[in-house]
Every structure is written in structure tokens, then in C-alpha cells.
Amino acid sequence: MSQNPTILRPDQRPTHWKISDHQVDYPDALARMKAHVEKLVRGEAEELAWLLEHPPLYTAGTSAKADDLTDPNMLPVFDAGRGGQYTYHGPGQRVVYLMLDLKQRGRDVRAFVRAMEQLVIDTLADFNIDGEQRDGRVGVWVRRPEKGFNKEDKIAAIGVRVSRWVSFHGISINLNPDLDDYRGIVPCGISDQGVTSFEDLGQLVSMPELDSALRKNFERIFGPTTRV
């Protein structure tokens, strides 16, 4: 893909790359993200890409509609404070929280979201999955003609918040989660399309393999990383 010059830092300062090897409770993750963003705003921390998994739960973005929470008792529900609507997180889903200084990356939120989508698309391509962007539908989609005409499934959701030009929240990619857990919500407010995963598409990939591909593609789009 061609690099978008508004996404790379001119100084090529490395982003810290952190992988949590245990499930992180959502309130804990949200508090840690907010604290890191405050430090980044003050110039007291480095940019961070944080890879983790959550226990099964739903999060509500700032555009979430009450009717899209179809089973409020199915899983815990948390207000996320990010853009977007309802989404699911759980084991087997790789969450990538990106705390980046967009002042150093062009001050273009639309370009940033597109770059996150491209990160997912390039990573999927490494495993022979064709992911696509859709105007008006943030996230990454896979065509499912076997399900009917114009049918598509979402394999990755994107929700972001920007505070004083520092981003947080980010990407969730379905590796092998329990897709039945999506039954309690209308994912991202879209009722006429479905959700899928690597496993659902017949691709048996380990989480470390996915992480390795994500890091390689992140470095091409966003710049160098250093493991912490």
C-alpha cells in the first residue's frame, strides 16, 4: 500500500508496543488508557500500542442507541466514551488500543481512522483474507456471497476518541471469539450484515501469529516500534 504521509511521525520516534498476556477488565483498561493519554499530553510518556484481550462484555460508544442493546442481561455493559455504537469484546478477540500523538501525525482524524482500517486489511491479507473498507461504515468487512446477495460480515471494529490530539481506544479483530456472544447487541448499529472471525472463515491462526503480522504492518503504516 502507499504510505499516507500524515500518519508517520517526521522524527520516526518509536511507538511502545505492549502485549498483555492475561485478560484485562474493561474498567481497568479504560483507567490505564486515560492515565497514559494524560501523560502523553504533558509530554511525560511515549506513544503506545497496547494489545490485549477482555473478558466477555459489551461497550457502548457515544452514538449507541438503547434499542441496539437487545439483551441487557446477557453480558456486562460499559460506557466506553469512544465514538461509535455497541460492540463486543471477549476472549479470542485481539484488541489494539492506540495512544498516539496526532499532532505529530498530521492532525487528521479521518486519515487516522483510514490508516487503522488499512492496518487491519494488510494484516488480514497476510492470512489470505480479503478485508475491505466501506464508505459510511467504519471497520473492516469481508464479502460473504454464500450467505446471499451483497452479504458482508464485519471482522474488525474500530472506535476511537481523540483528546487534545491524542488518540485512545482503537481496533478489535475477531480471531476466534464466541460469535454467539454478539446476540445481545446490534453490532455497531448495523442489523442487515453479520460478524465473522478468522476461525469462521476457516483460517486457524494463533494470537502470536496475528500479533506478529499486526506489528509488521503497523511499522509500515505508522512507523517503528519498540517492545515494552
TrEMBL record:
Residues annotated as domain BPL/LPL catalytic: 43-226
Keyword Cytoplasm: yes
Localization (cell): Cytoplasm
Binding site for substrate: R82, G83, G84, Q85, Y86, T87, Y88, H89, A157, I158, G159, G170, I171, S172
Site (Lowers pKa of active site Cys) location in chain: K154
EC numbers for this chain: 2.3.1.181
Record's catalysed reaction(s): octanoyl-[ACP] + L-lysyl-[protein] = N(6)-octanoyl-L-lysyl-[protein] + holo-[ACP] + H(+)
Protein's name in the database: Octanoyltransferase
Active-site annotation: C188 (acyl-thioester intermediate)
NCBIfam families, A to Z: lipB (TIGR00214), PRK14341.1 (NF010921), PRK14345.1 (NF010925)
UniProt cross-references to PROSITE patterns, sorted A to Z: BPL_LPL_CATALYTIC (PS51733), LIPB (PS01313)
Superkingdom to which the source organism belongs: Bacteria
GO molecular function terms noted in the UniProt entry: lipoyl(octanoyl) transferase activity
Keyword presence, Transport: no
First-level EC class: transferase
Organism: Maritalea mediterranea
Family statement: Belongs to the LipB family.
Main localization category: cytoplasm
Miscellaneous field: In the reaction, the free carboxyl group of octanoic acid is attached via an amide linkage to the epsilon-amino group of a specific lysine residue of lipoyl domains of lipoate-dependent enzymes.
Role this protein plays: Catalyzes the transfer of endogenously produced octanoic acid from octanoyl-acyl-carrier-protein onto the lipoyl domains of lipoate-dependent enzymes. Lipoyl-ACP can also act as a substrate although octanoyl-ACP is likely to be the physiological substrate.
Pfam families for this protein: LplA-B_cat (PF21948)
Keywords: Acyltransferase, Cytoplasm, Transferase
Pathway given in the UniProt record: Protein modification; protein lipoylation via endogenous pathway; protein N(6)-(lipoyl)lysine from octanoyl-[acyl-carrier-protein]: step 1/2
